[in-house]
């Protein structure tokens, strides 16, 4: 993303900082709670999502170029290693991306910002798979 000047604008700056990142995470988990396609994905999360939401907000903010609070608190993200205890296949990847796409549509007004975030998250979500497709 670039702004009006020659300096690069981070996705974090583009969307408006921590508050919009938090709204994105809230919408993401609201979608996970309500979309039938995300039922199995939601089931692997704790009933109380308070801490999960806080951590994902910190992670996404840092991932988008914002403050390094996630790493300061939790160390290197090691996302794949942190998710190895869960079965992550194509269905989970697709449900996660569906929830995120809808959350982006609901919370990020700029279509270029939404596409940039989703375009960068899609390969990351695919890389998180630890189960091979059946067949």
TrEMBL record:
Q: Which GO terms describe its molecular function?
A: heme binding; metal ion binding; oxygen binding; oxygen carrier activity
Q: Which Pfam families does UniProt cross-reference here?
A: Bac_globin
For this UniProt record, give its keywords in alphabetical order, as a comma-separated list.
Heme, Iron, Metal-binding, Transport
PANTHER family for this protein = TWO-ON-TWO HEMOGLOBIN-3
Assigned protein family = Belongs to the truncated hemoglobin family. Group II subfamily.
- State the protein's name: Globin
